[in-house]
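#dry-run=false #mode=assembly
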Amino acid sequence: MEGGEAIGPPLGVRAGALEWARRNPAWVAVGVLALVSVILIITDGLQPFAQRSVNGLVAGSYFALGAIGLTLVYGILKLVNFAHGDTLTLGAYIGFFFNVTLGLPIFIAILLAIALVGLFGVATEKVMWRPMRRKRAGMLQLLLMALGLAFVLRNAIQFVAGTQPRSLDVDVTSTYSFLGLTIGRTELYVVITGFVVLSAVAWMLRSTRLGREMRALADNFDLAETTGIDTGRVVYITWFLAAGLAGLAGVLVVASSGSLNPNTGFFLLLPIFAAVVLGGIGNAFGALAGGIVIGLAQEWSTLVFAPEWKVAVSFVVLIIVLIVRPQGIFGRERTL
Amino acid sequence: MSLPLAISFNFLTAWEFWIGVGVFAGIYGIFVLGLQLNVGYTGIVNFGQAGFMAIGAYSAIILVVEVGVPFLLALVLSVLITMLIGVLIGLPSLRLRADYFAIATIAFSEIIRDIAQNARGLTGGNQGTISLELDNNVFFTDPWFKVSDWISDNILDPIGLSGLEFENLPLLIVVWIALGLLALGMTMLIRSPWGRVLRAIREDEDAARALGKNVLSYKLQSLALSSALGAIAGWFLAFNLQSVSQDNFEPLYTFLGYAILVLGGMATFGGVLVGSIILWTVLEGFRFLDLPLSADKQAALRFMIVGVVLILLMAFRPQGVFGKREEMVLGD
Amino acid sequence: MTEARANGKPILNVQDVHLAFGGIKAVNGATFDVREGSITALIGPNGAGKTTLFNIITGFYKPQAGEITYNGESIFGKPPHAITKRGMVRTFQITKALGAMPVIDNMLLAAPRQPGENLATLLTRRRAVRQREKEIYEHAYELLRTFNLESKANDYAATLSGGQRKLLELARALMTEPRMVLLDEPMAGINPSLGRRLLEHMERLRSEEGVTFLFVEHDMEVVMNHSDEVIVMALGRVISRGTPQEVRSDQRVVDAYLGGSGETEVPEGPPTPPSADGGVQGG
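#status=ok
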């Protein structure tokens, strides 16, 4: 290393490019996506690529809904909530109960699922997480507690509902076609619902006072507390939102995939983690983008690999991101 | 309704059943020794132990059945392969913060399970390894059964424990001898100067660095040893089940491992043995409660109890039943 | 006590070191050297970059530019453990006594050349391990006796008082057989009599064993009365150096302190470090 020279000696072109990439990860991500798209269009044709992209957006919408809650809870409370996947399952079963068992319209069932799962999230905060934070519980203590909660939740669902696969009372056969692409009618509703809700959440986080307070808490909890934010209230609302969105995601998963069992949510947890880490853990907008990218990546992969490897794609993305850029695309370096 | 919790008459007489439970307790005891080394003594949260167990079991079986490597050599190689993969996984991911490492390792173990499920030619897919063995007419567990029969004929039969009634007793004995020796070995390791460095890292990596210790290297060694223990547990699982498939390595088993770890207590290898016995006795002994419930519901109830116990322990006794309070260093 | 040793040759040489966190230039071209066998104080207003510089010298932060040589060899970008092995050890502003280990284990841990810390030699050279363990055990006890911690040897370090922890940290650092010790605010938070003892130890080690000390300190009385040389930093640069008298009368130093009108008004520098594993408390 040269000593005693002026600040910032000129960097080589390669080092300069790397430095640019390090500072503009979002553009790198866009570039990678564009490159992959072009390659897939050339090798597999536009129509198959576009069809997979449509499917990917369907999956991406519920991944993103699940990811936002996970990332908000992590951002604000530094809790890696291993029970989040099972919270999705809970939402799906509540939706099933109102929609199928009681025969209510799916729209009502969805609202009830969001409300009840949201309240469940608030209850876990009140009974478990708040007292544990008071005790200054360590990271592993909270992690294992979340794991315990996941066990309880999944098996309570199995105890009550049994293991037989369930499905919702929705139309899974009719499809729409346009420009040679096909999308199931329910899938279309899922995408629309997903994107409407995601936009609303994004707007809420960006433009409302509550959203600013949440981001302030995620940035620096103690500082936020001293600036007069009612942190207790914000944390409860965060839990309601996180769990409620997970509940919605659960119902949407079952509506679009057509099948539900007590393990459904747990197996979605890792792709959702992938979305969260990709977007930068703790960053809600990142989770949103990450969810959609993971959805697309999984579906695009079926052009190249057999579909059974679809899920592994998200794990590989997760590990690559953790190694190359653990703070994710939108995460600032210092959050790690 | 009659007493729902009546205990059925054969509770204590079902020897073969309890031997089976003991075998599982032993296998997962070995599995959790690795977690104890990682979590209890090094402060790294390894959520991928089931993945290492899978690599151990599959590589041993594939080496014998498909490659034709002699049995004992295959066992040794399987441990080395697993350790190598442990190091390769740890090298990039151990630089991460503890909770990221946990997520990275669980993703790793799910990739392994995906491969086990989908690379059918190599692993037998969902049919399990038995399909490979039938194809090749080579049976991985044959050499083990020779050992097992020898123990039955020469040691157990003479004292009245015939191999017909106590078929799994030799495995129980061998697994628990292995567990005992490994626990002893690990205890000695952790009391050595090497273990002292690990315990320092567990508490404060920067302090260890400032005192001249290469933290990443020690963490890698800890992970490599833990994956070796996972691989050994994998052999015994293969001996016990005679055919393994991907669902034997679900993340559930890593999580049960954590339940054992917490029950037995942090920072004690002896506690692992006790924790494993408690967990498997409770899990399996549950079958003897005459509950008017379907099998699904009973299984759900058992795991619910595991979850509740985990939550209560973390809330009120995080160091576990036999753990050392003073050595409670559960990250921050 | 201000015996400047002008003839000692530099053991540590820091040349134009730069490190910025985001937009904040925590260390901005610091250049100085430390003479062998001296007790050198590093002072400056809060946010001057003293602790960051410590973290850079000892390998906890990777600087973006510059050069650092220790004992004639470049240690720029070397990891902390490698630097400690070369004979330069540090303590931390917030003590890092390992509370979950007994005091004696804290000491034994720090000893170099224990073959038992390597898995292979632990198993193959059992006798050498035992022999070395015995040696370092005796050495550790000797040091604990000097620092009046002998009676605490078997207690968990968590049970020590704040001052005792500082002593333990210095004693533990000495176990690494250093030629140079970096102390980050050794006097902060300990009572005056313990502080005096700490200083006596430093002076004795310097005169008896030729150990070099570089320490960050806010207590000006300590700095002026117990150091051979003083290095003054402000805003990430060295603005003055010399004997305590020289520095005291340097207008730039007065300006640096008064310009911030006291110590507390200059914004505190280093935010959380950029890497996952370099998490050292800034301050």
